[in-house]
C-alpha cells in the first residue's frame, strides 16, 4: 500500500487549503488514519485522526479550523484547513498502520 499526499502550497494567513491523501487500495474504511505535521526543528505531531467508522479527533490548536473526511470509495482522505495561521506551516503527512506518505508542504505567510 502506498500513500500520496497533495494539495499543499503557499497561502496567506486566514486562507484555506485542502490536502488529499490517496491510497493505492481502499484502506481507509478499514483502518484509522492520521494527518501529522512536522515543522522545521520540531517533532512530528498528530493533527487529526479519522477512524474506519468515521470518528474524528483533532489536536487542540486546529479544532474548529481543520476538518478530516474521506471519500465514499475509502481510498482518499481529505484535510480541509481553514483560517490558516503562520504556525500551521509544516510538512503534512498522512499515515495508516505503518505506512507514511512523503508529505506535502504547507506554508502560511502573514
In terms of topology, how is this protein built?
Elements: E1 3-6, E2 9-12, E3 17-23, E4 33-38, E5 45-50, E6 56-58, E7 66-70, E8 76-81, E9 90-96, E10 99-100, E11 104-109
Parallel strand pairs: 2-11
Antiparallel strand pairs: 1-3, 3-8, 4-5, 4-9, 5-6, 7-8, 9-10, 9-11
Describe the structure.
This protein is an all-beta fold. The chain is built from no helices and 11 strands. Strands 2, 4, 5, 6, 9, 10 and 11 form a 7-stranded mixed sheet that branches. The chain is globular.
- Distance from first to last alpha carbon: 38 Å
How many helices? The count is 0
Provide the residue-averaged pLDDT.
96
Along the chain, the helix and strand elements come as: EEEEEEEEEEE
Unreliable stretches (pLDDT < 50, length at least 5) are: none
Give the class from helix and strand content and strand pairing: mainly beta
State which percent range the strand residues make up: over 45%
Query: Largest sheet, described in full?
Result: 7 strands, mixed
The strand count comes to 11
Radius of gyration: 13 Å
Helix content: under 10%
Shape descriptor reads globular
Amino acid at each position: 500500500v502506498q500513500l500520496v499526499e497533495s494539495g499543499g502550497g503557499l497561502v496567506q494567513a486566514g486562507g484555506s487549503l485542502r490536502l488529499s491523501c490517496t491510497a493505492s487500495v481502499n484502506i481507509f474504511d478499514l483502518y484509522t488514519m492520521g494527518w501529522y505535521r512536522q515543522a522545521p526543528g520540531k517533532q512530528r505531531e498528530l493533527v487529526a485522526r479519522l477512524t474506519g467508522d468515521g470518528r474524528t479527533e483533532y489536536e487542540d490548536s486546529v479544532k474548529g479550523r481543520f476538518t478530516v473526511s474521506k471519500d465514499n470509495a475509502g481510498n482518499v482522505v481529505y484535510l480541509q484547513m481553514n483560517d490558516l495561521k503562520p504556525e500551521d506551516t509544516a510538512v503534512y503527512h498522512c499515515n495508516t498502520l505503518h505506512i507514511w506518505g512523503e508529505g506535502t508542504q504547507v506554508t502560511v505567510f502573514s
